[in-house]
Amino acid sequence: MTRPHIKICGLKTEADIDTVLERGGKEIGFIHFAPSPRHLEMDAMMRLRAHALGRAAVTVVTVDADNETLARIAERIRPDTLQLHGSESPARVAEIAALTGLPVMKAISVSMPQDLEAVARFRPVADRILLDAKRPKGSVLPGGNGVSFDWSLLDALGEDRQFLLSGGINPSNVAEAVRRVRPQGLDASSGLESAPGRKDAGLIHRFFDALDAAALAGASDASSSLERRFA
Fold this sequence. Notes:
Layout: E1 5-9, H1 14-22, E2 27-31, H2 42-52, E3 57-62, H3 67-77, E4 81-84, H4 90-100, E5 104-110, H5 117-122, E6 128-133, E7 164-166, H6 174-181, E8 185-188, E9 193-195, E10 198-199, H7 201-230
Parallel strand pairs: 1-2, 1-8, 2-3, 3-4, 4-5, 5-6, 6-7, 7-8
Antiparallel strand pairs: 9-10
Helix pairs in contact: 6-7
Family: Belongs to the TrpF family.
Organism: Aureimonas ureilytica
Pathway: Amino-acid biosynthesis; L-tryptophan biosynthesis; L-tryptophan from chorismate: step 3/5
């Protein structure tokens, strides 16, 4: 089993960034959405962006942001990717990509089979797709709610695994997510926190330990299969 691309989102401190990168995380995410406990202002994002420069891809997450905000993010933060986690239409996604000149990742909320129809609509305009659980009733946050969706729904996508899986990914279920879904990448946030907006180094280490154990188990299974085949 090969380790998928790992994005850890909602990071707020240099220490948390260092922990993620030491364990092999390839992408980090900053949230710019005031209602979120993981929200960062521009100056904080600039400082953390500089800390991670040359060591990780940086994504800034926005929710239905206006053009002025998006332009400021592009100019001041210069992220590798802009993640759109709101109700943006395909036309709006294309408009944002043209406005900022940045690669765009579109988040799609999933709770029922029909939600996956949006994947085909956004593929032509988004550089990457992220599939997340639909927010619970009463929550103002479109993501980072610590809930998963029924991964069996993704069987409808067939062999298409070109997406990041998000929604309640944590040390206890990350191995199953890799084995069951086989996504291009995983995006974890609230499942690695001791309190909303507060990453826990112990949970981050357990998350990567579980990933490494799953990769070893997958390699062992593949080796045993080959031995049986040629015995």
